[in-house]
Amino acid sequence: MWNKLSLQLRVTILGGVCLLSVCSLLMGYLVISAGKVFYTPYENIVLTTENNEMTKESPAIWEPVSKENLQSSGANTKEIATVVNIEYHAAQQRYLWISLIGTIILSIVGTLSIWLVSSRAIRSVSVLSEQIETVDENHLNAPLPVPEAMDEVRRLTVSFNHMLSRIGNSYETQKRFAHNAAHELKTPVANMLTMIEVSELDENPDAEELKETLSDVKAEVFRLKELIGDMMLLNVSNVEKAQVDFHLLYEEIVKELETDCAEKGVSIFCEGNTILLGDWFLLKRAFFNLLQNAVRYNIPNGMVTVCCERHKITISDTGIGIPAKHLDHIWEPFYCVDPSRSRKLGGSGLGLSIVKQILDKHDLPIQIESTPSGTTITVILNSIKLTAL
């Protein structure tokens, strides 16, 4: 029931209860205090009137009564004390009722004030809620208007706009990925379909021609399989942690790159060693992609240098470099600096995206610097996750 009430009503009820409690406690304290200060026992009244003066220990709420007045009025001391006590109790009751009525009035006025103040404060939240409801996939890049008041609603709006911007960027990245993935998957399928249709044009195809066609189709199937495997690596989630000797990892990678190195005459050198904590297969794939790019985009008879230090691993090449305007985008899926050159070298545009995804899963930041005479990639190592040899 409580959770079904509006925020404004809940704030008002809580404020009203707190105000009523404080006023009630204050009223009770004042009533009790007044009774202790102004109450004069019967014996003290008798003593006061007989001595014709007020005692310091028992202050009274009336003027002293003289013996002449007592004699002239014909009233004795006991009668005077009785009248005074009756007057006192009547005054006490009036004070109690006035305090009670005042407490009720103050509580009502205070509750209404809380309702009005909370209404103004929550109005901006209601406006923000209505604005948020208008946001959809077509307006992710349209920020909400930020209120001028320097309050929590302003901070909430600014935070929401930042979140909206990140979601918008992520959404656009996913759209580009889906578009590029569809294009990359469509190409080998279209090639295979074309080969099959060409073979069907000949009613009596030659065995050699069929064999060649099958070989081409098989190559496209392997290319499609590799592309799908790369796309699955982009969504890797489970990382099995174990000690990984980087030098052993490097030796396996260099062995697999022997053909590429021989074709371009590129030499690879490694200095130092490091024990990493992570998944062998994933780390191998990440550093394989980095070294493969360093070889493929190198100059003929170029050089690749791998340097292992305490807190970083650097991979430097003597290649063609990457223009500065592309450095912020090379980690995006299917992004190619030179699409025609990448296609010629067998790249799909997923290599560096896979590297970034794997290293992020291992909490290993990566940096890149490039000039027309070469590129240097640095993998920052956490000292907790490694041991230098």
Give a brief description.
The chain is of the alpha+beta class. The protein contains 11 helices and 8 strands. The protein has helices at 7-38, 42-51, 67-73, 77-133, 152-201, 207-233, 246-256, 258-264, 280-296, 339-344, 351-361; strands spanning 242-245, 267-271, 274-278, 303-308, 312-317, 366-371, 374-380, 386-388.
Give a structural overview:
The protein has 11 helices and 8 strands. The protein has 389 residues and is an alpha+beta fold. The strands form 2 sheets. It has a 5-stranded mixed β-sheet with strand order 2-4-5-7-6, covered by helices on one side. A 3-stranded antiparallel β-sheet has the order 1-3-8. Strand 4 and strand 5 (312-317) form a beta hairpin. The longest helix is centred in the first third of the chain and has 57 residues, at 77-133.
- Report the average pLDDT across residues: 76
Sheet of most strands: 5 strands, mixed
- Kindly report the spatial arrangement of strands forming the biggest sheet: 2-4-5-7-6
Total DSSP helices: 11
How would the global form be characterised? elongated
Give Rg in angstroms: 44 Å
SSE-based structural type: alpha+beta
Number of strands: 8
Residue share in helix: 55-70%
* CA-CA gap between termini: 65 Å
What pattern of helices and strands is seen along the backbone?
Answer: HHHHHHEHHEEHEEHHEEE
